Amino acid sequence: MKVLMFGWEYPPHITGGLGTACYGLVKGLAKQGINVILVVPRLWGGEDNKVAYLLDASEVELDERIVSYYYKEYFDKIKYYAIDSILIPYVSPQDFEKLLYSENIKGISHVDETVLRKKFKFSGKYGENLYAEVARYSLIAGVIARENPHDIIHAHDWLTYPAGIVAKEISKKPLIIHVHATEFDRSGENINQYVYNIEKIGMEAADRIITVSYHTRNIVINKYGINPDKVFTVHNAIDPYDIDKIRQNKGFPEKLVTFLGRITFQKGPDYFVEAAYKVYQKDQNIRFVMAGSGDMLNRMIRQVARYRMGHKFQFTGFLKGEDVYRLFLISDVYVMPSVSEPFGISPLEAMYSNVPVIISKQSGVSEVLKYAIKVDFWDIDALADAIYALTHYNGISNMFRKYGKQEVINMKWDNSAKKVIEIYKSAIGVKCFN
């Protein structure tokens, strides 16, 4: 079986869990004998091309016949704009304040000329031309689908749904979309209608939908009105890392409590700071670290300064690869207080590193973890109590370290890949929706 897969990023050049999950799944599929053609907007070098045939969309020349075949039919229905703000794949409502349908809004300009340019170099990032790149990527997908034989199409998250739709129109092969997050996870109820529309169109066009948790499956069914019969859940897993080769000294005697993730509304960084302050009031010999970047970073720095605990609180910026495990190896507790988390791979990485974890009940990963402390994201007192217990009572923390690692060792991408292959097979046996 040959899969034409559309992603947006690929390790080691990533900004979050989407690229990590894509890589893990591709490796799992390769072990099952599945041939994957993986397309990303741009390859930077250093990517692992042993498990998939990697295609750089920036090197594909736009075929004018594809444009004439599909552009008028599809893109006249969806407007795409270049905007003056910087976007990331999971954004807050504030990031989308300038994104409205009216062309009279200051700072918005139409980008047909950019999208239709014959040669186009993707930035491969989430910048001011994101929507133009999503549109252009979908047209490139038509060329790739026509020139690369495949049995099925697999598109990861909303940025690639238009690409998957165009590829399906060209090849008439079944389309699988993989929902790693929805607009309701990123923005709560104050959604961006443009992104929601792309998500809904992709879901309706797909022959099968894979969600990373039952939590996300319920959102797809109830918020987007999708038929439950074509929505399947495949939980994420962990890609084992050789942590024994890492040598990292803590450099201080205090216990270290860690937050690692995007510093955005979705991840609940403010609840972490509030809980940290409650713990700090009881024991000033504990340190805290917030690793990541996002639109709430400056606000969190000000909040820590306001509580006068900056000497016990460190902001590292975005970490990836081995640096993530370096941090976990000196951490005593990992906290993920997400407001709405489709899954959450970082708790698995922490547990693999022998770190006890506290996660929100509103996370998809809470569906599969037994040896993790689970609290409501908004319950700061419960979160603070859990942090205090894990940093003061060795019996509790040692239990979670021991059994937590045993639990995640069995969560392999090979198992997730087998479930995905069964979904592929069922889709191939179903007539495509046209």
Can you put this structure into words, describing what you see?
- The chain is an alpha/beta fold and 434 residues long.
- The protein folds into two domains: 2-237 and 413-428, Rossmann fold; 243-409, 3-Layer(aba) Sandwich (Rossmann fold), CATH 3.40.50.
- The protein is built from 15 helices and 15 strands.
- The strands form three sheets. It has a seven-stranded parallel β-sheet with strand order 3-2-1-6-7-8-9, sandwiched between helices.
- α9 (269-282) links the parallel β10 (255-260) and β11 (286-291).
- α1 packs across α15.
Number of domains: 2
Please identify, by name, the CATH architecture of the largest domain.
3-Layer(aba) Sandwich
| Global structural class | alpha/beta
**Biggest sheet strand line-up:** 3-2-1-6-7-8-9
Inertia-based shape: globular
